[in-house]
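I am still getting used to backbone structure tokens and would like to learn alongside you. Would you supply a protein for us yourself, any chain you care to pick? Start from the sequence, derive the backbone structure tokens from it, and show both lines together. Go ahead whenever you are ready, and we will take it from there.
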Amino acid sequence: MVPVSPCSTNLPPARFVVRDGGDLQVSTLDFRVMLGLVLLSVGGALALSLVGTFVVRRCAIRFDFVDRPAGHKGHEKPVALGGGIAIAFAIVFPIVVGTFFARVLGTSDLPSWVPQLYATHAEGIASKLEMVLAICGGAMVLHIVGLIDDRRALGPLPKFAVQIAVALFIAGPMGIRAVEALGAPISIALTTFWIVLITNAFNFLDNMDGLSAGVAMIAAAIFGVTSMMAGQVFVPVLAWVVAGSLLGFLVFNFSPASIFMGDAGSLVVGYMMAVLTILTTFYDPSKGTEPLGVIVPVVVLAVPLYDVTSVVIHRLRLGLSPFRGDRRHFSHRLVRKGLTERGAVLTIYLATAATGLPAILLPTTNWTGAILILLQCLCVVMIIAILEHTENAEPAD
């Protein structure tokens, strides 16, 4: 989303993608190294999330930390809360420990068991410790606020205020910003708005078993690929760690869910999605990428953005608070059209993949190709809008 990512400075470029005569090619050796990095990142986070979710679920039931059916909620019996604890731990722990490990060991005399790619970039990784602590600190603040809200409803305003404060801290003192070419004041304002918007988009999307976690997992995987293609190392690792943590949680959260992530998880997931889009270098003239690459986040996150926009418009038209929970989400409208909850969730997964996967090509394609990708994304969103707003037809005699 930014011309030069804060994570691309002082970090030697990855060799996963090399440019030869303008064409993208993959080196076999580097592909194996990067594939190993992906498997390590996803596998480690997956294992932590699986174990963490299992433990948290048992503890939540024992201590009566459950979500009981009431109001607009769709489940029929109490379901354990606290899944966000496992998600946050599976993201924050490996990223902080890995970065701190690089800082402590330094770049000389690394043990032989340290992976070559990690050793090669140890200095660059170590230099990001302050940024990592800031990002993870922001995630933990949102996580704690979400936990409090899961236990005792805080109301929208306190949560919204904390989201703005965290976003301003990230964009201001930490300098993690989008569209920096527009100048610091505008960049800080737009970055703050973007972080709060995406945080709430995934919070709103957490309205059906496996929905928010699955969509975020797909998006994180796509951002992992795009950041790899941009020659980054830290950002794809972060993206794949997020994807792995969500995959582990989905084992317990897919319908019928035995545990919910709650606001303690959805706020963290949305925040990490926003941070990933800001850290990834989607446009860098020195690497021959195209300017339209900056809209990759909007295309990949088209479905969550559509959902939060349509829901807010519906609520405002009815004179209701945009933050008031109800069953007017995209997923609920699909169920009212006759889909099962699993069917609705899988449909939204497919819609997310349909808009997100072509976006991988945006930074490297020409203007014609980029316009076609945008038109495809627009068509998918329009199909969604038509389907969910079409009245159910009466059965034929």
About this structure: The chain has a mean pLDDT of 83. DSSP finds 15 helices and four strands in the chain.
